[in-house]
Design a protein that fits this description.
With 186 residues, this protein is mostly helical. The protein has helices at residues 3-19, 32-47, 53-59, 72-88, 101-110, 138-148, 151-160; strands at 51-52, 91-94, 116-117, 128-131. It has two domains: 3-47; 50-186, no CATH class. The protein has a two-stranded antiparallel ribbon. Helix 4 (72-88) crosses helix 5 (101-110). The protein is globular, with a radius of gyration of 21 Å.
């Protein structure tokens, strides 16, 4: 593949991004092949229509009733179905062991599945992560430090934010994370 052709393709990708109102991306240290691929992904993202995982699941034929409509056994089965269908769409959960099945289902139903974002379920190299402790709130950060942070992470947190409490480590009350699908990039 002649370099001139690649230079032209890269220039065209940059112009297309600029026409979409994006900023000019300068990646001087990146090899041309990587830059071209990167710009293609950025352009694909910029052109994509945001949607919700709730909509994608419904379009895939998954019914998602409110948790109040489900008995515990049915809820556990439905949660399992949703988690596995999310994985088939490239969306993966992490840090769920502190929540009961009903609490996790409610979190997904009311929050995580309703957030608009850009998804690429047809792209196997794409992964969307739903970190149940990832909101950045004080409560989520405390839950992360209590149940999921290892000793090195806890020490680093204490150093970086000395006024934040570091609770004693506790094993989470549930054991789900090791059983749910993981992205191949994890």
């Amino acid at each position: 593949m002649p370099v001139d052709d690649q230079d032209e393709r890269i220039a065209k990708l940059r112009e297309e991004l600029k026409a979409l109102g994006g900023t000019t991306i300068s990646i001087e240290s990146m090899p041309a092949d990587m830059e071209e691929e990167f710009l293609r992904h950025v352009l694909e993202y910029e052109r994509a229509e945001p949607t919700t995982l709730f909509t994608l699941l419904q379009n895939a034929g998954v019914e998602i009733p409110a948790s109040s409509e489900l008995q515990d056994n049915d809820l556990a089965t439905k949660l399992h179905e949703i988690i596995h269908k999310l994985a088939s769409l490239g969306a993966y959960l992490q840090h769920t062991n502190h929540l009961s099945d009903r609490e996790l289902y409610d979190y997904l139903y009311n929050d995580a599945l309703r957030e608009e974002n850009v998804f690429f379920p047809e792209n196997p190299s794409y992964a969307y992560t739903i970190d149940v402790t990832g909101s950045g709130s004080d409560d989520d950060n405390l839950i992360y430090r209590k149940y999921y942070a290892d000793e090195a992470q806890r020490k680093q947190w204490a150093f970086d934010w000395p006024s934040d409490p570091i609770p004693d480590h506790e094993e989470p009350p549930f054991d789900r994370d090791r059983l749910i699908p993981k992205s191949s990039s994890n």
